[in-house]
Write a structure and sequence with these properties.
The complex is a heterodimer.
Chain A lengths: L26 E3 L5 E2 L8 E6 L6 H20 L11 H30 L2 E5 L2 E9 L2 E8 L3 E7 L3 H6 L1 E8 L6 E7 L1 H12 L2
Helix pairs in contact in A: 1-2
Chain B lengths: L10 H33 E2 L4 H25 L1
Classes of the chains: A alpha+beta, B mainly alpha.
Chain lengths: 201, 75
Protein backbone atom coordinates (compact mmCIF):
# COMPACT_ATOMS: atom_id res chain seq x y z
CA UNK A 1 0.00 0.00 0.00
CA UNK A 2 1.30 3.41 -0.91
CA UNK A 3 1.93 5.92 1.82
CA UNK A 4 -0.55 8.76 1.87
CA UNK A 5 1.90 11.17 3.40
CA UNK A 6 5.62 10.84 3.94
CA UNK A 7 7.09 13.43 6.26
CA UNK A 8 10.14 15.10 4.75
CA UNK A 9 13.40 14.45 6.50
CA UNK A 10 14.23 17.35 8.80
CA UNK A 11 17.54 19.01 8.39
CA UNK A 12 19.18 20.28 11.53
CA UNK A 13 17.77 23.73 12.00
CA UNK A 14 20.02 26.66 12.75
CA UNK A 15 18.61 29.27 15.08
CA UNK A 16 17.05 32.24 13.35
CA UNK A 17 19.35 35.21 12.69
CA UNK A 18 22.36 33.08 13.63
CA UNK A 19 25.70 34.44 12.52
CA UNK A 20 28.65 32.65 11.04
CA UNK A 21 31.75 33.19 13.19
CA UNK A 22 34.98 33.64 11.28
CA UNK A 23 38.49 33.47 12.69
CA UNK A 24 38.60 37.28 12.98
CA UNK A 25 35.00 37.80 14.16
CA UNK A 26 34.66 40.13 17.10
CA UNK A 27 30.93 40.77 17.42
CA UNK A 28 28.46 37.97 16.71
CA UNK A 29 24.82 37.71 17.68
CA UNK A 30 23.54 34.13 18.00
CA UNK A 31 26.85 32.69 16.78
CA UNK A 32 27.05 29.26 15.19
CA UNK A 33 29.40 26.56 16.38
CA UNK A 34 30.73 28.20 19.55
CA UNK A 35 30.71 26.21 22.79
CA UNK A 36 32.39 26.74 26.12
CA UNK A 37 33.41 24.02 28.54
CA UNK A 38 30.67 24.43 31.17
CA UNK A 39 27.87 25.18 28.73
CA UNK A 40 24.61 23.43 29.56
CA UNK A 41 22.70 21.43 26.98
CA UNK A 42 19.84 23.92 26.62
CA UNK A 43 21.98 27.02 27.07
CA UNK A 44 22.16 29.18 23.97
CA UNK A 45 24.92 31.67 23.21
CA UNK A 46 23.37 35.05 22.42
CA UNK A 47 26.39 37.28 22.07
CA UNK A 48 30.05 36.63 21.36
CA UNK A 49 32.47 39.50 21.86
CA UNK A 50 36.16 40.05 21.36
CA UNK A 51 38.29 43.20 21.21
CA UNK A 52 38.10 45.14 17.96
CA UNK A 53 40.72 44.01 15.45
CA UNK A 54 42.12 47.54 15.25
CA UNK A 55 43.48 47.08 18.80
CA UNK A 56 46.02 44.64 17.30
CA UNK A 57 47.65 47.36 15.22
CA UNK A 58 50.29 48.17 17.88
CA UNK A 59 51.77 44.64 18.04
CA UNK A 60 51.44 44.17 14.26
CA UNK A 61 53.40 47.40 13.67
CA UNK A 62 56.02 46.44 16.27
CA UNK A 63 56.38 42.98 14.68
CA UNK A 64 56.96 44.51 11.24
CA UNK A 65 59.65 46.77 12.72
CA UNK A 66 61.28 43.79 14.47
CA UNK A 67 61.22 41.79 11.21
CA UNK A 68 63.01 44.47 9.16
CA UNK A 69 65.35 45.64 11.94
CA UNK A 70 68.13 43.00 11.41
CA UNK A 71 68.04 43.64 7.65
CA UNK A 72 68.56 47.36 8.26
CA UNK A 73 71.34 46.71 10.81
CA UNK A 74 73.17 44.26 8.52
CA UNK A 75 72.84 46.71 5.60
CA UNK A 76 74.24 49.69 7.49
CA UNK A 77 76.97 47.95 9.53
CA UNK A 78 79.64 48.15 6.76
CA UNK A 79 78.93 51.90 6.51
CA UNK A 80 80.20 52.29 10.09
CA UNK A 81 83.20 50.07 9.42
CA UNK A 82 81.88 47.17 11.48
CA UNK A 83 82.43 43.86 9.76
CA UNK A 84 81.73 40.96 12.09
CA UNK A 85 80.74 38.58 9.31
CA UNK A 86 84.26 38.27 7.96
CA UNK A 87 85.42 35.35 10.11
CA UNK A 88 83.81 31.91 9.90
CA UNK A 89 83.33 31.66 13.66
CA UNK A 90 81.36 34.90 13.98
CA UNK A 91 79.28 34.04 10.89
CA UNK A 92 78.18 30.82 12.60
CA UNK A 93 77.20 32.69 15.77
CA UNK A 94 75.41 35.40 13.75
CA UNK A 95 73.45 32.74 11.84
CA UNK A 96 72.27 31.03 15.03
CA UNK A 97 71.41 34.31 16.78
CA UNK A 98 69.56 35.64 13.72
CA UNK A 99 67.49 32.45 13.48
CA UNK A 100 66.80 32.61 17.23
CA UNK A 101 65.82 36.27 16.94
CA UNK A 102 63.30 35.53 14.16
CA UNK A 103 61.90 32.60 16.13
CA UNK A 104 61.34 34.92 19.10
CA UNK A 105 59.62 37.46 16.83
CA UNK A 106 57.42 34.60 15.59
CA UNK A 107 56.62 33.74 19.24
CA UNK A 108 55.76 37.35 19.96
CA UNK A 109 53.38 37.48 16.97
CA UNK A 110 51.78 34.13 17.86
CA UNK A 111 51.31 34.95 21.57
CA UNK A 112 49.94 38.42 20.79
CA UNK A 113 47.44 36.85 18.41
CA UNK A 114 46.47 34.21 21.02
CA UNK A 115 46.02 36.98 23.58
CA UNK A 116 43.50 38.68 21.28
CA UNK A 117 41.90 35.45 20.05
CA UNK A 118 41.19 33.93 23.47
CA UNK A 119 40.13 37.09 25.30
CA UNK A 120 36.43 36.65 24.79
CA UNK A 121 33.22 37.73 26.44
CA UNK A 122 30.20 35.49 26.00
CA UNK A 123 26.60 36.24 26.89
CA UNK A 124 24.42 33.16 26.96
CA UNK A 125 20.72 32.74 27.70
CA UNK A 126 21.61 32.01 31.35
CA UNK A 127 24.87 33.73 32.21
CA UNK A 128 27.81 35.88 31.28
CA UNK A 129 31.23 34.26 30.74
CA UNK A 130 34.41 36.29 30.69
CA UNK A 131 37.49 34.42 29.47
CA UNK A 132 40.71 36.34 30.07
CA UNK A 133 43.88 35.08 28.52
CA UNK A 134 46.18 37.66 30.05
CA UNK A 135 49.49 35.85 29.79
CA UNK A 136 50.87 32.71 28.21
CA UNK A 137 50.71 30.92 31.56
CA UNK A 138 47.70 32.73 33.03
CA UNK A 139 44.09 32.38 32.04
CA UNK A 140 41.07 33.33 34.07
CA UNK A 141 37.47 32.37 33.55
CA UNK A 142 34.67 34.17 35.37
CA UNK A 143 31.00 33.27 35.17
CA UNK A 144 27.89 34.88 36.63
CA UNK A 145 24.20 34.24 36.21
CA UNK A 146 22.15 36.87 34.41
CA UNK A 147 20.00 37.17 37.55
CA UNK A 148 23.05 38.43 39.48
CA UNK A 149 23.67 41.31 37.09
CA UNK A 150 22.66 44.68 38.52
CA UNK A 151 23.77 47.14 35.89
CA UNK A 152 25.36 47.34 32.45
CA UNK A 153 27.15 50.38 31.11
CA UNK A 154 29.75 51.25 28.53
CA UNK A 155 32.30 53.94 27.79
CA UNK A 156 33.47 55.07 24.40
CA UNK A 157 35.98 57.88 24.51
CA UNK A 158 38.68 59.10 22.19
CA UNK A 159 38.98 59.74 18.48
CA UNK A 160 40.00 56.24 17.35
CA UNK A 161 37.37 54.33 19.44
CA UNK A 162 34.65 56.69 18.17
CA UNK A 163 35.84 56.41 14.56
CA UNK A 164 35.97 52.60 14.64
CA UNK A 165 32.98 52.31 16.99
CA UNK A 166 34.51 50.36 19.84
CA UNK A 167 34.59 50.86 23.60
CA UNK A 168 34.57 49.23 27.01
CA UNK A 169 31.58 47.38 28.42
CA UNK A 170 31.11 47.01 32.18
CA UNK A 171 28.76 44.53 33.82
CA UNK A 172 28.18 45.11 37.51
CA UNK A 173 27.08 42.21 39.64
CA UNK A 174 25.39 42.01 43.02
CA UNK A 175 27.18 41.59 46.33
CA UNK A 176 30.77 40.47 46.54
CA UNK A 177 30.92 38.95 43.09
CA UNK A 178 33.46 40.45 40.76
CA UNK A 179 32.43 42.90 38.08
CA UNK A 180 32.90 41.97 34.46
CA UNK A 181 34.50 44.04 31.78
CA UNK A 182 34.90 43.58 28.07
CA UNK A 183 37.50 46.01 26.83
CA UNK A 184 37.66 47.57 23.36
CA UNK A 185 34.71 45.61 22.03
CA UNK A 186 32.94 46.70 18.83
CA UNK A 187 29.44 48.24 19.08
CA UNK A 188 29.45 48.57 22.89
CA UNK A 189 26.08 50.39 22.90
CA UNK A 190 24.40 47.49 21.08
CA UNK A 191 26.05 44.94 23.39
CA UNK A 192 24.90 46.88 26.47
CA UNK A 193 21.35 47.00 25.06
CA UNK A 194 21.33 43.25 24.41
CA UNK A 195 22.49 42.44 27.96
CA UNK A 196 20.11 45.06 29.35
CA UNK A 197 17.19 43.40 27.49
CA UNK A 198 18.21 40.00 28.85
CA UNK A 199 18.23 41.18 32.45
CA UNK A 200 15.01 43.15 31.91
CA UNK A 201 16.37 46.67 32.20
CA UNK B 1 84.27 12.42 22.77
CA UNK B 2 87.69 13.68 23.70
CA UNK B 3 87.20 15.95 26.69
CA UNK B 4 90.88 16.83 26.76
CA UNK B 5 90.47 18.72 23.48
CA UNK B 6 87.84 21.06 25.00
CA UNK B 7 89.30 24.30 26.22
CA UNK B 8 87.23 25.20 29.31
CA UNK B 9 89.08 28.50 29.74
CA UNK B 10 88.11 29.70 26.26
CA UNK B 11 85.18 32.18 26.54
CA UNK B 12 83.81 31.04 23.14
CA UNK B 13 83.17 27.61 24.66
CA UNK B 14 81.06 29.15 27.44
CA UNK B 15 79.20 31.38 24.96
CA UNK B 16 78.28 28.21 23.05
CA UNK B 17 77.09 26.49 26.23
CA UNK B 18 75.02 29.51 27.35
CA UNK B 19 73.51 29.83 23.85
CA UNK B 20 72.50 26.17 23.89
CA UNK B 21 70.99 26.47 27.39
CA UNK B 22 68.97 29.55 26.37
CA UNK B 23 67.68 27.79 23.22
CA UNK B 24 66.82 24.74 25.35
CA UNK B 25 64.74 26.94 27.65
CA UNK B 26 63.06 28.33 24.55
CA UNK B 27 62.19 24.79 23.42
CA UNK B 28 60.54 24.20 26.82
CA UNK B 29 58.66 27.48 26.41
CA UNK B 30 57.26 26.35 23.01
CA UNK B 31 55.87 23.23 24.73
CA UNK B 32 54.20 25.50 27.32
CA UNK B 33 52.62 27.51 24.47
CA UNK B 34 51.34 24.31 22.86
CA UNK B 35 49.87 23.12 26.19
CA UNK B 36 48.12 26.46 26.67
CA UNK B 37 46.64 26.33 23.17
CA UNK B 38 45.40 22.80 23.90
CA UNK B 39 43.85 23.90 27.23
CA UNK B 40 42.18 26.91 25.64
CA UNK B 41 40.68 24.81 22.84
CA UNK B 42 39.16 22.58 25.52
CA UNK B 43 37.75 25.58 27.42
CA UNK B 44 36.39 27.35 24.37
CA UNK B 45 35.39 25.64 21.16
CA UNK B 46 35.50 28.02 18.23
CA UNK B 47 34.54 26.85 14.74
CA UNK B 48 37.67 28.20 13.07
CA UNK B 49 41.20 28.53 14.18
CA UNK B 50 41.61 25.61 16.56
CA UNK B 51 43.30 23.30 14.08
CA UNK B 52 45.29 26.20 12.65
CA UNK B 53 46.50 27.33 16.07
CA UNK B 54 47.44 23.81 17.12
CA UNK B 55 49.32 23.32 13.84
CA UNK B 56 51.16 26.64 14.27
CA UNK B 57 52.15 25.73 17.84
CA UNK B 58 53.45 22.32 16.66
CA UNK B 59 55.43 24.06 13.87
CA UNK B 60 56.75 26.41 16.56
CA UNK B 61 58.04 23.42 18.58
CA UNK B 62 59.60 21.84 15.48
CA UNK B 63 61.36 25.12 14.57
CA UNK B 64 62.70 25.52 18.13
CA UNK B 65 64.02 21.94 18.23
CA UNK B 66 65.54 22.42 14.74
CA UNK B 67 67.29 25.57 15.95
CA UNK B 68 68.68 23.69 18.93
CA UNK B 69 70.02 20.94 16.65
CA UNK B 70 71.45 23.54 14.22
CA UNK B 71 73.13 25.32 17.13
CA UNK B 72 74.72 22.06 18.34
CA UNK B 73 75.95 21.24 14.85
CA UNK B 74 77.33 24.59 13.66
CA UNK B 75 78.52 26.28 16.84
Amino acid sequence: MNDIFVAPKHKEKMPENSEHVGILSNFSKNPNGIHFQTQKHNEKIILFLRSHFITNISWIALSLILIILPIIILTFLPTFGIDFLSSQSTTRFTTVYTLFYYLMVFSYVFISFLHWFYNVFIVSSERVVDIDYSDIVVHNIAVTNLSHIEDVNYTQSGFIPTFFNYGDLFVQTAGNERNFEALSIPKPREAAHIIGDLIGK
Amino acid sequence: MDFNSINFVNPVFWIKIITLIVILFYVVFTFVVFTQVKVMTQILHLPHGETTLKTISIIHIILAISLFVIAIVIL
